[in-house]
């Protein structure tokens, strides 16, 4: 199965994503901020990254750019609780494979992971 790295400053969201991904058979990695996420990405080389847009240090769109710069083939799913269309368009232009609105619906996440 794939390695999936989840990056979010909300520990509850990270725990829920981690539990869900493990239950689905994925190898789950978590990071509490963008900087930690980039470090884990470089070390572990996951095939999928799920990243929150609004984080205090490095935001999710910057993480998206850096990850795609290191590995253009990685799938990046961007999520936010504040989804405006400009943000969606920016994320997709930067190479995001999908955009999820919080609170995340498990069925929608399953579909995004299978793409």
Features:
115 residues; alpha/beta; 5-stranded parallel beta sheet; 5 helices; globular
Overview of this protein structure:
The chain is built from five helices and five strands. The chain has one domain (3-114): Rossmann fold (3-Layer(aba) Sandwich), CATH 3.40.50.2300. By secondary structure, it is of the alpha/beta class. It has helices at 11-23, 34-44, 60-70, 85-93, 106-114; strands at residues 3-7, 27-31, 48-52, 75-80, 98-101. Helix content is 46%, strand content 22%. The two termini are 14 Å apart. Helix 2 packs parallel to helix 3. Strands 2-1-3-4-5 form a five-stranded parallel beta sheet, with helices on both faces. The mean pLDDT is 94.
SSE blueprint and pairings:
Blueprint: E1 3-7, H1 11-23, E2 27-31, H2 34-44, E3 48-52, H3 60-70, E4 75-80, H4 85-93, E5 98-101, H5 106-114
Parallel strand pairs: 1-2, 1-3, 3-4, 4-5
Helix pairs in contact: 2-3
Summarize the structure.
By secondary structure, the protein is an alpha/beta fold.
* Largest sheet descriptor: 5 strands, parallel
Helix content: 40-55%
Reading the helices and strands in chain order gives EHEHEHEHEH
Order of strands across the biggest sheet? 2-1-3-4-5
Q: Which structural class do the helices and strands define?
A: alpha/beta
Low-confidence stretches: none
The 3D shape can be described as: globular
According to CATH, the homologous superfamily is Response regulator
What would you say the CATH architecture is?
3-Layer(aba) Sandwich
Rg result:
12 Å
In the CATH scheme, the class would be Alpha Beta
Q: Which percent band covers the strand fraction? A: 15-25%
Distance linking N and C termini? 14 Å
The chain-level mean pLDDT equals 94
Q: How many domains, in number, for the residues?
A: 1
Total beta-strand segments: 5
Number of helices: 5
CATH topology (fold) name? Rossmann fold
């Amino acid at each position: 199965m794939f390695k999936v790295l989840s990056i979010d400053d909300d520990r509850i969201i990270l725990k829920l994503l981690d539990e869900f991904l493990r239950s689905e058979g994925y190898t789950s990695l978590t990071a509490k901020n963008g900087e930690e996420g980039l470090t884990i990405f470089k070390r572990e080389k996951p095939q999928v990254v799920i990243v929150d847009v609004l984080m205090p240090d490095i935001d999710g769109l910057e993480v998206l750019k850096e990850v795609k710069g290191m590995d253009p083939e990685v799938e990046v799913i961007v999520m936010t609780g504040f989804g405006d269309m400009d943000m969606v368009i920016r994320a997709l232009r930067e190479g995001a494979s999908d955009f999820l609105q919080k609170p995340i619906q498990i069925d929608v996440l399953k579909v995004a992971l299978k793409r």
